[in-house]
Automatic annotation (TrEMBL):
Amidohydrolase-related domain boundaries: 125-376
Gene Ontology terms describing biological process: secondary metabolic process
Lineage summary: Bacteria, Pseudomonadati, Pseudomonadota, Alphaproteobacteria, Hyphomonadales
Lineage: superkingdom: Bacteria
Alphabetized InterPro entries for the sequence: ACMSD (IPR032465), Amidohydro-rel (IPR006680), Metal_Hydrolase (IPR032466)
SUPFAM superfamilies in the cross-refs: Metallo-dependent hydrolases
Entry annotated with the keyword Lyase: yes
Keywords carried by this UniProt record: Hydrolase, Lyase
GO molecular function annotations of the record: carboxy-lyase activity; hydrolase activity
Record's protein name: Amidohydrolase
One GO location term (cellular component): cytoplasm
Species name: Hyphomonas adhaerens
Amino acid sequence: MSYADGRLIHDADSHLMEPADCLDPYFEKRLLDRFLALPRVKELRTGAKAEHVGERLALQQDAAFRAEADDNILLRKNYDAHGAWIRQDRPHTLDKLGFASQLVFTTHCLGNFGLDQSDDMELCYAAADAHNRMMTDFCSIDRRLLAVAYVPLEDFDRALATAKLALELGAKALMVPSLCPQHHSPSHVALDPVWAAAQEAGVPVVLHVGGEKKLNPMYKENGLPPVPDFHGGDDNFTSVSYMPIPEAAMQTLATLIFDGVFDRFPDLKWGAIELGANWVPGWMRAMDSAAHAFMRNEERLQKLSAKPSEIVRRQFRAAPYPHEDAGWIIRNAGEEIAMFSSDFPHVEGGRNPLKRFDETLQDLPKSAIKAFYSGNFIDMMGEGLAPDLRVPELQQSA
């Protein structure tokens, strides 16, 4: 019996746990040395952390360790998780989880090594292309694994070329940063060809944690000892660094809506993944208030096809964290938005995400629960999800 136990569940957030050299076989050879010379890349390949990753990946080859994989499918996390990096293991992992599909994101390459904020756009887009080759190659082993490609928005022509290549490679979603590009808005009309390519392919554009504006480090300078996060360090999720995670996403998505991008591409769906969703109801109301307050003076607001909150329900989907009250989010944002995600194999996803979400959904109508576990994901994914995966025969007869 699988973890999903016959329920139709699509997973809006899962990950690979890549070694530091994961992009090397996919990188344009003439640029690889330049990439390896980056201080951030050098740091990832040396020291105790690199040794730890090597040890954990080597353990994946141990027969005794592998024999216990099925009993620990949601208990082992990060590099210890079955199918986290060994490509041939991931379909079996998905069988044990029982999810109809998984949207698959990187871990190692989130943020594109800071290259989006650099002056080296050739290397920025080369890293994105290498990432996209890696992700689509990994996911090609099983059609239930839906590869997410990355498209930097810094250079108009290069962004379109990277998006087109990703779609040709078989990417099922395009990830863009929530952080604003250096020299223009994410709503700039010169990026319309990128959105048009995604809409034509029938795949969504998503934002994911890792591409946002980071916490000002001075907030940590409080005269007290460092606060450990889930991973034992102090550079990921803590109570303070958690707070600004959705800020850039809220601003970027609001700008895209106000500047008419959602309306210019009405069939294009957008997603916010691993950015939480507690912020969504208030954000929707804040946009409606802004539209009401500035409607008289702003022609762009007068041209909107509907209230911003209605546009959100039409085209935007978000994945709550398992510690959030998904039922409250649905009651206050509408049934059309929230989606289940496991965050497999990250520690943040917990050992029993279904239990945690089920507890918050108890008083909701069946239609809302179905939308949360499958319907909203199916709607967001569009042509990126094969028709037979939307209602697999097993779950259809269950």
